[in-house]
Write a structure and sequence with these properties.
single chain, 218 residues, mainly alpha, Rna Polymerase Sigma Factor, Chain: A, Arc Repressor Mutant, subunit A, globular, disordered N terminus
Length: 218
Amino acid sequence: MDNCAPDCSYRRTPFGVHSAERGSAVRETRRIFAQDFTTAPYPRMAHFGEIYEQHRNLVYNLCLHYLHNAQDAEEAAQDVFVKIHARLPGFRGQSSLKTWVYRIAVNHCLDVLRARRRHKRFAFITGLFTGPDETPPEVPHFDHPGVLLEDREALETLFRQIHELPENQRTALILRYLDDLPPPEIAGIMGLTLKAVESLLQRGKQNLEKKRRPGAGK
């Protein structure tokens, strides 16, 4: 793969192998990683490469928790770091760097999910008018690399139920129980009070328990 010609259909990125149609985004990411931010307002993490190295696993795992598909998570994580690069000069250290990175990643994942829902609605409507040879694009399948085959069906159901919750409840549960963050840190990421986060966690767990009861949704 590393010896591919320039027009090869796949290219290697910091997160894996992506289709050629994302080549321009890959080149932009490489250009970003080569830059030096020695004049950034956050001197201890002035070089963007340091931010990437310290947070790439955090960002990828969060994207995977939201999107449930390894390729989608890789592409989303790459886009998150492009956004981090663009916004870094405006970072003033009013929150911790980790909180700031999390906030950008969460908001981007929510944007991706909203776009996915819009796409599904559009595909459904256009599908009413398509002929037998015109099939709307498929929604990505559940593909979580950390899930054992025998656990796949149960965890796919659990993730789907989590994502049926309201956005704030979903985000609070993901950050608390999948990313293992304490409620005060979640409050900083979501821009809420600690009391509001605790309420979201309680309501989210209650709603999730209702969904998981036998016969629920039938």
